[in-house]
Amino acid sequence: MNLRSSQPLQPLEGDHLNRASNVTPIKASRRKDLPLDYYNYYNSQRPGDNHAQVQQQQHHQQEKVKKKKEKLSALCKTPPSVVRTRKGIDYRRGMFLGEGGFARCFQMKDAQGKIYAAKTVAKALIKNEKTKTKLLLEIKIHKSLKHPNIVNFVDCFEDDVNVYILLEICPNQSLMELLKTRKRLTEPEVRLFMVQIIGAIKYLHSRRVIHRDLKLGNIFFDPDMRLKIGDFGLATVLTSAESRRYTICGTPNYIAPEVLGGKQTGHSFEVDIWAIGIMMYALLVGKPPFQAKDVNVIYERIKCIEFLFPSDKPISESARVLITDLLSLDPTKRPSINSILDYAWFKGPFPSKTNEEALTGTPSGVNNISNTQSAHNFASAKNQAGIYTPKLKNPVEILKTDLESDQPRTVLPQSLSPGDTRAKYQEVPASLINQDGRSTRKFYFNSKFAKSIIKLEKSLSDTVHNLRSLRSRAHDSELTARELPSCEHPTLISKWVDYSNKYGFSYQLNNDDIGVLFNDGTTILKLHNSDRFLELIPQDGEGWSCIENSVSHPPSQARRLLEIVDFFAKYMNSNLSKVSENEERKDIVFLRRYTRTSDYIMFEMTNGTFQFNFKDHHKFCVSKNGLVMTHVSPERAIQTHPTVLLLEQGNFLTADVPNCLEKIAIIEAAIRAKI
């Protein structure tokens, strides 16, 4: 699954303002993006011959399909912050990654800090044996696969509301997102991509698996920019090489003509060959060959093989020949998976690999590769993609026991979730690799952040101790000015938005630094008046590792996170008022954690200060281990004084605060509860 989904960030409505949202916004999909089997079901319900009635029914049907799409996605509940499996393994839920028609994807982190993608399917969707069998078949097929160009299956488990499919995380987007950014790709790049895709499909077919939903959006880049095929929700296994399937399914722009024939024709491995042609055309031209606004027009064009090579987007003659053969109406006329790479088109310039430069623009020198080097690179790519691997003799088998639950209230049989599947996962490396093979991402394990959790725990206990002590000293007549601490206004959270049901908690400090505490515990802190940002990653209760990078040239892993930070920054600057006037940055400060109650929200900062925003819009900040307290009024007037003087006088010195001592007592109790 794709770690950095490019789905546009949803607008924040008024009821998201400074409070947790109970509903994750859903982006409605167009009808032609629905899987065909669902489209046909709804389309078949349209009655009547009267033109006006049909038009009206079509409109209602479109709305019904959209609502059904939204409803199915909405059933996938956000997982709890910690998901525990039957084997006692805990996974911490991270940020929301994206969603499809019937599932949502979240980051999951295990106890060792390894990050995965969890495809989450709501049990409410599994209403009958047919739906359950379809899900278990997807799991069984995917679990049985092991290939360098197929997303690694890690594990599967369930809780009371969801089924989770744990997968290798692919953080560098999909081919669809790459095409949206680049508009068109060069032929050398597409040659390399096609070899990797063909290698994976050859492996699938050798195991009698048909994917049936191959498309740019289901092919992802791993951390090394190697392509990986994912999403086996429509995959099936043939009982023999000669058997056929008759279900009408797939994505309209990619569906093969024989699939549209349903039971009259049947389909087999050739539907994946057709999809190769569609993807090759789309990458070289910029859109699928049969694309239209009306899905029925798409189907008519497919049935007639009605497509053109646009003159304003020229591609080589050898590419046209291959695409035309791949998109043959007769499945038997299409080249076999073993013969595609024999076409002349593959003899052109061929790069040794791709890198992250390709995510935003044409890689340098990609068209200037010698024939000798291209031939060497082509052979190497085929070897890495398993083209030379002898045909396997162990096709995927679906056993009855694989589709039967061990307990009445569970969905997953234990046979689908063996204890050793987690060992298959390869941790995503921390560093990025550029085209020269050197790391371009540097870790700065600053002593300022190392062991800081331990210091914060000490700050908690010291603050509680000092508040107790100050209460007893508040009326000490011998207290002298020399004993009073110096008072400076602290760094405060000036604006905030709680969007933790999808991304995390966003805030702006009164020094104008912008931060997001993501659901996996990672913080992105964008420094004001600077081209730098910090990625702060928690380190097993000891502190944070700090990764510093450029805002203008962020690494791909952080690009999506930075986009979310910018989204929240724009929203807060446009819609929220500041708590206090700006302060100069004294130090790097960010939010450690926060607690919400019906009376206040409590912020614990990494410099040991505690901020309390009460529901009457008065704000308190406890700093210097409880020795100093700051108040910000609803009108943004700020005053900072020694805590002992507040306790002695029963209120702040400059302006009275309603229920001041009661609020201080609440603050002391809240901090004590954190020890």
From TrEMBL:
Annotated ATP binding sites: K123
InterPro entries referenced in this protein's UniProt entry, alphabetically: Kinase-like_dom_sf, POLO_box_1, POLO_box_2, POLO_box_dom, POLO_box_dom_sf, Prot_kinase_dom, Protein_kinase_ATP_BS, Ser/Thr_kinase_AS
Molecular function terms from GO: ATP binding; protein serine/threonine kinase activity
GO process terms (BP): filamentous growth; mitotic spindle organization
Gene Ontology CC: one annotated term: cytoplasm
Name by which UniProt lists this protein: Serine/threonine-protein kinase
Organism (species): Australozyma saopauloensis
Keyword presence, Transferase: yes
Region (Disordered), start-end ranges: 1-29, 45-70
Domain POLO box: 492-574
Key words, A-Z: ATP-binding, Kinase, Nucleotide-binding, Repeat, Serine/threonine-protein kinase, Transferase
Its EC number(s): 2.7.11.21
All residue ranges annotated as the Protein kinase domain in the record: 91-346
UniProt-listed Pfam families: Pkinase (PF00069), POLO_box (PF00659)
Listed Gene3D superfamilies: Phosphorylase Kinase, domain 1 (3.30.200.20), POLO box domain (3.30.1120.30), Transferase(Phosphotransferase) domain 1 (1.10.510.10)
Family: Belongs to the protein kinase superfamily. Ser/Thr protein kinase family. CDC5/Polo subfamily.
Reactions catalysed according to its record: L-threonyl-[protein] + ATP = O-phospho-L-threonyl-[protein] + ADP + H(+)
